[in-house]
Design a protein that fits this description.
By secondary structure, the chain is mainly β. The protein contains no helices and 9 strands. Strands 1, 2, 5, 8 and 9 form a 5-stranded mixed beta sheet that branches. The protein is globular, with a radius of gyration of 13 Å.
Amino acid sequence: MISTHVLDTKEGRPGAGLKVGLYSAKELISLQETDEDGRIAELSPAALEPGVYRIVFHTDGGFFEKIEVSIAIADPDEHFHVPLLLAPYSCVIYRGS
């Protein structure tokens, strides 16, 4: 399972209403919006096969138009949480727990 959490560090608030896509190669697997707490609990709609996936955060404004992150999944039973801290001129992505 893949989940995400977006924080707007400029405003000190969750990044609500941000579109986030999950891709396998060029195939869109899931496209969802962050909730009022800036979260998407299950970005992956079902069990994933091992492989490389891309998460695309559509920020649509400011310095970044979109931010792409690639993750390699070796164990599809493992939970991957990918938080994004977003500011006007910087972003930080890390593997959460």
